[in-house]
Each structure stands twice: as structure tokens, then as C-alpha cells.
Amino acid sequence: MDTSAPITVVGAGPSGLASAIVLARAGKKVVVRESHKSVGARFHGDFQGLENWSVKTDVLDELRDLGIATDFSVHPILSGAAYDADGRKYEVRDEKPLYYLVRRGPGADTLDSALLQAAKEAGAEIRFGDKVERVPPDAIVATGPRRADAIATGYIFETDMADASHVSFDDRLAPWGYAYLLIANGIGTLAVCMFRDFKNHAAHLKEAVAYFERLTGLKMTDPKPFGGYGMLSHMTRVERGGRLLVGERAGLQDALAGFGMRYALVSGALAARAKISGQSYASLLNRRVRSIHRAGIVNRFVFQTLGNKRRGWALSKLSKGAARRGLRRLYGGSFFHSLLYPGVAWRRAARLNHPGCDHIDCDCPWCRMHGVH
Ligand SMILES: Cc1cc2nc3c(=O)[nH]c(=O)nc-3n(C[C@H](O)[C@H](O)[C@H](O)COP(=O)(O)OP(=O)(O)OC[C@H]3O[C@@H](n4cnc5c(N)ncnc54)[C@H](O)[C@@H]3O)c2cc1C
Question: How far is it, in rounded angstroms, from Cα 230 to Cα 343?
Fold first, then answer.
């Protein structure tokens, strides 16, 4: 029986709950303090993709290996359609899942609820409605994004359409980002993920709906709007005194596509491992994710530099072989990435992104959530 003081985890998102699960399973006393009344409060039942391409190991095996049970509900995606700015279609496929769809939010069948259940079963104490004003000196800090460098806005709906995965790379629909339509088992998510021009998000979303209607005959029953934001950053100093920063709070998010769940779960588990073993969290994290994270930053720079018209070239290359392998090359930390990274990092020292909104007269998800419109 562990008689030491409990370890505090601030935030019950995927990163904080991953820490709590691993710590509690190792017999540590853990208290997770969450400001909202439930898990997943900033999500709305939308589909998100747990990426499975940045490293060879399947993400579910990686999580199991780190001590996180993967009995949450997933929908593997082995193929999908990608479109360039001229509407040309590229079939992208692999024999292994490119990513796993999971639902996010406080609902019963979401990743968030499954992680909460696992943390409780492992023996962690979860305190809801407990906003932390002063983070204790040896806590794990899992508080998520602090600003909006990218936003997503869209609809969750019911449909009788067949399962599908569509993504369009067209700045007119989603500036510097992508518009996506995901359908699984009669539930759909359609959204635009944008990296600038947040003020016009409603117009972009309208365009995206019309686009997918033309392309797929989209039928949405009972569409419910949703929106959210994410932060792109260089990896921050992840150890501050005794505090360990995990997930998006540590700047861990794929800068190209805004995928942060794998980073959140892995970093949360590694922070717990560091607490248990006394190893350096920064070293564990650097060894595992630094080169992938830097590659994401370079990839975003290249994506923006290529511009709307030339992205088709990259999609065409990706559609010619096993897509998972092609994508892995993009994150492999190649000589090209190491060469470009210092320049890209220097050019974008302050922020990784165009300031997407001036917070004046704006109703983007960030401004709505922070009451500034
Ligand atoms: C619309 C949208 C779509 C996305 N799609 C994808 C996708 O397809 N694939 C992917 O991998 N990623 C996606 N992401 C990103 C992904 O959801 C995040 O990167 C991930 O949730 C980050 O996890 P986290 O634990 O670091 O932070 P969060 O999930 O933000 O959790 C942080 C928690 O800390 C709590 N908290 C904050 N401050 C305090 C405080 N002071 N005291 C107590 N509690 C506090 C918050 O309430 C929250 O519950 C998407 C994000 C959005 C918004």
C-alpha cells in the first residue's frame, strides 16, 4: 500500500487520464482535478481520428504497451478519398488502418468516457468542478490548449449513407486546412478545420456542406453544430520545477493536421512512467516524439508553401502506394526535415501560425468559448 501523498493531475482530458491510469495501475495514489463537471466537455460527440501513420507500431499496440487498455470503441479506417483544389479524387488506402475513428465528448460511447472508466477502475480519484488556480509544484499538468491556432467547426448528424471518409484540401473551403466528411454506422461528422480566416468560418462551412452535397449526395438528419480549437506550438519546456506538462499543454499536437490525441495519450503515459521510475520525463518524451513533432512543423510549412494548386501532386504520390508507409515517410524525421527545421523554427519563433482571429466582432469557436464576441 502506497502511503505517500497523492500525485495531482490537473485536467481530465486524454493526457491527464492516461497519466492517471498508468499511475493508479502502478499502485500510486492519484487525484485528477477537472474544472468541468464531466470529461470531454469541450467536445460534442464528433468523430476524431486516432492517427496510425506516424510510426510503424500500431497505435493501439503502442497504448497497450504503455499500460492503457484499448477497450474503447474504435472504427478502423483502411481507405478514404482525398480531393485536391480542382476536385480531383485520389483513393488513399493501406492494408492496415490509416487511423481509428473515435467519438469525443461526455457521452457514453466516447474515448473520454472510456478513459474515465479505466482511470476509476484503476483506483484514481477524479474530482469534477475543481478548477485549479495554483498548480501544485509536483503535479502533472494536462490542461489542454491555451490559444487557438486552428479551429474546427461543423455538424454532427445522423444519416443513412454508407460508411465513408472524405477529405478535401482546398483553401476556399478550409484556409490552410481541410474539410472532412466522416461517416460510420449511421453517424456523421462534417467539418472545416482552418488555420486562418477564423472570422469567416460560417461561410467556409456553408461552402463545405454544398461541396459534399455535390460530391456525395450528403444527407444530414438532425444536424447539430459543433466547434473547437487547438494550439500549434514547438515543444515547450516539458519539465518546470517538479511539474510535468503533457498533451496539448506541452505543445504536443501534429502541426500539419492538428492531430493531438496520440500525443496526449503517449505523453500522459510517459509522464506517469517518469514519476514511477524516477527517469527524466523530458528524455523519455524526446526519444519518442521529438523528431515526429518537428517533422509535423516542417510539413505544415511545406503544405502552406505548396499552395492550393500543387497539393494534388502530393496526394497523387500518396495514392500510388501503401498510404501508411507514404505518410510515415512524411514523419520519419528525414534529412530533409532536419535541414529545414531550424529555418522553419526560426521564422515561426513566436507562434506557429497566422493569427487566425483578432478577437473583435468574431464568433469563431475560440471567441464564443471565451465570450469575446
Ligand atoms: C474539433 C476538434 C477536432 C479534432 N480532431 C482531432 C483528430 O481528428 N485527431 C486528433 O488526434 N486530434 C484531434 N483534435 C485534437 C485533440 O482533440 C486534442 O489534441 C486532445 O484532446 C488534447 O488532449 P489533452 O488532454 O492535452 O487536452 P484536453 O482534451 O483539452 O483536456 C484538457 C482538460 O483540462 C481541463 N482543464 C483545463 N484547465 C484546467 C484547470 N485550471 N483546472 C482543472 N482542469 C482544467 C479541461 O477542462 C479539459 O478537460 C481535435 C480537436 C478539436 C477541437
Answer: 24
